[in-house]
Design brief:
mainly beta, about 250 residues, 2 domains, 3 helices
């Protein structure tokens, strides 16, 4: 089973934070620390933020152009899996299978296709929790929003209200005979997410899987792949737990 694109983006975001600055830590001191175990296959190339400095924007067809090829890609070849966390040049992270390589003109051009996360890691465990609960009548922004363009969203909202309980003369323009209540009402949620992949001790992609990945290069010249990659992969287990919160402040 393939993990959803959102789950993969979150996993790549956490992995990117881990590779650049150690395990991520939530904004709330009461939230458990992120759990990260990532053991890549030998065919996986993990790119740091510095490796992506010369990467041009993807035109939408999976073409990755490096005007100055990084050393990490000196031996990249068809069948390699590229992994990168969230960065200015990869706002949703990067999880690609290399289908063609062109080193002409002093730059590196890779034709790639989206890859299942199971192709990148022989063992992967990512688990984290975040809080987006409302406190003190104002919404608390999820820590993910400020750090990741791919997840640039809030998970909470606070709205004001005002209600006239009694109006002595029925005229809304005279307020000295009115009984009014007002305040705010809001809500958000705490959530945790985990992603697990385990090839059960296999240290390198089996030949049948690697050959299947390479066969996808034929798609570039109109030849269909010779296999179904999903049928050859272990399950990517994903778990999401959501705890809704509600807050009210009445005057």
């Amino acid at each position: 089973m393939r993990a959803s694109s959102l789950v993969v983006a979150v996993a790549l975001f956490i992995l990117g934070c881990s590779s650049s600055s150690g395990p991520g830590t939530p904004g709330d001191a009461g939230t458990p620390p992120d759990e990260i175990t990532a053991l890549p296959f030998p065919t996986t190339v993990q790119l740091a933020t510095a490796d992506l400095a010369s990467l041009q924007p993807d035109p939408g067809d999976g073409t990755l152009t490096f005007t100055t090829p990084p050393a990490a890609l000196a031996t990249v070849d068809v069948g390699n899996i590229l992994v990168a966390g969230v960065s200015p040049s990869t706002p949703a992270g990067l999880l690609r299978a290399v289908l063609a390589v062109d080193r002409s003109g002093g730059q590196l051009v890779l034709r790639t296709g989206q890859a299942p996360i199971q192709l990148a890691y022989k063992k992967l465990h990512v688990k984290f929790a975040r809080s987006a609960a409302v406190a003190g009548g104002s919404s608390a922004r999820s820590p993910l929003g400020a750090r990741s363009p791919a997840l640039d969203t809030t998970f909470d909202a606070t709205l004001p209200f005002s209600y006239v309980l009694f109006d002595g003369d029925g005229d809304p323009n005279t307020t000295n005979d009115q009984l009014v209540t007002d305040g705010t009402m809001g809500g958000g949620f705490d959530f945790s997410l985990s992603v697990d992949v385990d090839w059960n001790g296999i240290d390198a992609l089996p030949d049948v899987v690697e050959n299947c990945v390479k066969s996808f290069a034929g798609v570039l010249v109109g030849n269909p792949p010779s296999c179904s990659i999903d049928a050859l992969l272990p399950e990517a287990r994903t778990t999401i737990v959501v705890d809704p919160q509600i807050h009210g402040d009445v005057n």
